[in-house]
Structure formats: C-alpha cells, structure tokens
Write a structure and sequence with these properties.
alpha/beta, Urease, subunit C, domain 1, TIM Barrel, 2 domains, 5-stranded parallel β-sheet, 17 strands
C-alpha cells in the first residue's frame, strides 16, 4: 500500500520541484517523487512547501530541564567550566522517571520545531550514588521509551566516560553517575541492541572526549564496537574549549583533532562534536577523513565556546550538521540562523553559507544540515529521495511570515526571519504524521510532565 501527498513545491536533493506527488510505503520509506499535471483524486494536498525533516545530531536530553537556569554570574569570569559544575549538581538528582518525562517533553518540542530524528549522547548511566541500577540499561531505556512514545527517530549513543582529564586523571565525585569500564560499556551495548532494533533505533557509541578516555580505553572500546557492529556511528566531543586544546597540547604535544586523526580510525562513521578550535591543518585533515562536524550554535554561543570556521570547512568540502546539545534553544531554523550570523559577525560578510553550487543561503544551510545529520545518525534520513525514510516537514504557506512568497523565499523567511514564530504546519517521521497544525498529539501531557519533573528537581 502506498501513502501519498501532493506538494505544490518540494525541496528535493537537486532543488525545488513543482507539483510533486510524494509516495511512501507502509514501512515509512519513500517510493517515488513524480511530477504530475494535476492532483490525483483523493490525494491530500500539502498546506505549503515540503522540506526534508531535520536530524538533530547532538542532544543531552536531561539538560533541557536546566535550560535558562544558569544565566547568573557565579564566578568572577564565568565559562563552560563553571557552567559544568552547576550542570553536575543538577544531574546528580535525576532518576529514570524524571529523565523519561524530560525527554518526552523535549522530543515533542523537537518534532514541533521540525526535527524529525535525534542523536542522543547519553552519559547519565547510574543512580545518584554512582551505583549501577539493577538493570544497567535503565536510564538508556527511559530515553528509548520517550522516543518511541513521541515517534521521533532515535540514534542512541551511550557514552564511555572514565577520567576527569587528559592522562587518566581520577573522575570527580560529580562524574560518578557517568563512569563505565570499557568491558561494562561493551556489555551495555549488547544489552541495548535488541531494544534498539525493536523500535528501529540505531545504536552507536560516544567516547565522551579525549580528556575522559585514555588512548588504551579508546582503542579497546573501538575494537569491541567493531566486533559488535562495524558500521555503528561514533560521536565524540572535541576541541570545544581553548582550555581543552591547551591541556591536550600539554599532555600529548598535539592539538585534540590532530591527535585523534593520528591515533584513531576516523572516517565517515565519526561525528566530531563542536570541533570549534582547529588549526588550518586540522580543518583540512578532518574534512578529508569524511567525518561530520557536529555544530551546536546556540549551545556554543551560550557557553562562550567560540566560533567554528564554517567557511574554511566548506572550502574543504567537509560534512556538517546541527544539534541542540544543551537545549538552550530547540529549533533547527534558529540554530541555522545562528550559524550563519556567527559567520557574518566574524567575517563581516553576508550570505556566508552560500556556495558556488547553491547561492541561496537558507537552502544551502537546510540541505547541508540534513545530509550531514543523516550521516551522523547512521539512518536513512537524508531527504526526499527514494529509499530514504519519509521524514518531512510541511510549512504553512498562509502563515504571516510566509504568505505570498515563493518557496525559496518561504524557506529563507522560516530560517532567517521567523522572529521566534513557527510556520511549521506538519511534521512526519517514518511516514507517520506526528505534528498537525504545529502541535504534537502529546503536547499538553508531555509539557506537563517536563514541567513537573523540573519542579521536583528544583525542590530537591
């Protein structure tokens, strides 16, 4: 059985197409995109332009409940590191039920904003005392249930976290909930694999960072992962802060990205999250490896990380995508706008993300982020193309931000000129309609659960 939708305009991999009949099967995979002369009988008509759904390549779900609560000065000069201390205190109080409630609310927010899948970089494994739950997968399963309930596509990335700094420093008390031995992590992956398969979620691995795993542990866990699934995605935080770069130089004599490229089999399976501080050689080598740069503009701005040299990465044909990370903002359009604006401020130019093959900034941003996000997710969510999953967004052509515009102008207005309004009418994931008229069916219940979980945590 085919499911169908007529789109007056659809953003296909090759650009905008007019009068397109979109067809997908019962398994939620695209079967055909055909130009037609008229709308076939009984086929619904999209309320506006159809865009590919956006993969969110980096999420720490529990931090959604912390968003906005650290915007006060706690040190003479606040930084990522002072923020991290506050985050650790918050994380210490979370239980499985609270995590599931927060994630459910967050995933509803993501879907309503136009994210159709998420890569969950999950490091909150143990109980508040740092002890394993009776089922070591308890916290991971909370996230899988939230994804299944909301319908968002999931790539689950359990995090290997062992040390407090470069060279194998002992973990701090605030990190006790994160810590796994390498053997324990591999057993956790074995435990999670059938649970992920049961809901078509993708399972991968996230060595937290070079400061959190030793070279020996990194080699051992990558060898074990290869035996379990040689195609599994691998994500790692890297070169987010200048202090991290300095510490890596002191430890190894190399910058973080250079060290990783020299000592790990970095290829297209890898997502280098942030990669904010690279030198010219690292930009060239990292792009050539095929790895995706995982950019999180709103979080990177909120934490004062610095500015990724996006134009340099583009010039090396590097793959990239976006994530909402700490969820200070949960909106792909807003993060794409921030990415473009950071480049404009840094370079004192306009329309920086445009390139020779695509002079339209919004289209270049959207399609680039979809392609890189799909690669990082290791799922077939790379756009409106046969064989890919039917993840897509329908914009509301009658929304005041978009009304009367051409499709390329609508996309540009959605990304650049939305003024925190949303013109998203529908969101589909795997061929299932999850958001209608801008709202998820679970909106009220999910938001109430998130608010209650946050209220309980703030009372603790």
């Amino acid at each position: 059985m085919h499911h169908q939708l007529f789109a007056e305009y659809a953003l296909l991999p090759g650009g905008w197409a007019r009068d397109v009949l979109l067809q997908w099967n019962a398994q939620g995979q695209w079967q055909a995109m055909e130009a037609v002369q008229a709308v076939p009988p009984q086929v619904p008509r999209a309320a506006g332009p159809v865009l590919p759904g956006m993969p969110n390549l980096h999420s720490h779900a529990f931090q959604r409940a912390l968003a906005g609560l650290t915007e006060y000065r706690s040190h003479a000069q606040d930084s990522f590191w002072s923020w991290r201390t506050l985050m650790y205190r918050f994380a210490a109080q979370l239980g499985p039920a609270q995590l599931e409630a927060i994630a459910t609310g967050l995933y509803v927010e993501m879907l309503e904003a136009g994210y159709s899948s998420v890569c969950e970089f999950h490091y909150l494994h143990h109980d508040a005392h740092g002890q394993a739950y009776a089922d070591p997968a308890e916290m991971s399963l909370s996230l899988l249930r939230a994804a299944q309930r909301t319908g968002i596509g999931m790539t689950l990335l359990p995090v290997l976290y062992q040390n407090s700094g470069f060279g194998g420093g002992a973990p701090t008390a605030g990190q006790s909930r994160f810590i796994h031995s390498t053997e324990y992590m591999l057993r956790l992956l074995e435990r999670l694999r059938p649970a992920c398969d049961a809901q078509s979620a993708r399972l991968g691995l996230a060595p937290h960072s070079l400061r959190a795993v030793t070279p020996e542990s990194l080699h051992e866990v990558l060898t074990g992962l290869k035996a379990l699934d040689a195609s599994a995605p691998i994500h790692i935080h890297i070169a987010e802060q200048t202090a991290e770069v300095d510490a890596c130089l002191a430890w190894s004599g190399q910058r973080p990205v250079a060290w990783l490229l020299d000592h790990a089999p970095v290829d297209a399976r890898w997502c280098l999250v942030h990669a904010t501080h690279m030198d010219a050689n690292e930009y060239q080598r990292a792009a050539a490896s095929g790895a995706v740069a995982g950019l999180c503009p709103s979080t990177e701005a909120n934490l004062g990380d610095g500015i990724f040299e996006f134009k340099t990465w583009q010039n090396h044909q590097g793959a990239w995508g976006i994530g909402s990370d700490s969820h200070i903002a949960v909106n792909p359009a807003e993060d794409l706008m921030l990415l473009e604006y950071s480049q404009r401020l840094s370079l004192r130019q306009r329309n920086v993300a445009a390139h020779a093959q695509q002079p339209d900034v919004a289209q270049a941003l959207w399609q680039g982020a979809v392609a890189g996000g799909a690669q990082a997710a290791a799922r077939p969510v790379a756009g409106l193309a046969v064989g890919q999953q039917a993840d897509f967004i329908v914009l509301d052509a009658q929304h005041p931000t978009l009304a009367g515009l051409s499709p390329d102008q609508m996309l540009a207005s959605h990304v650049i000129a939305s003024s925190r309004q949303s013109a998203v009418a529908q969101v589909w994931s795997g061929g299932q309609l999850l958001v209608q008229h801008g709202r998820h069916a679970l909106h009220d219940e999910a938001m109430a659960g998130l608010v209650q979980a946050r209220r309980d945590l703030l009372k603790a």
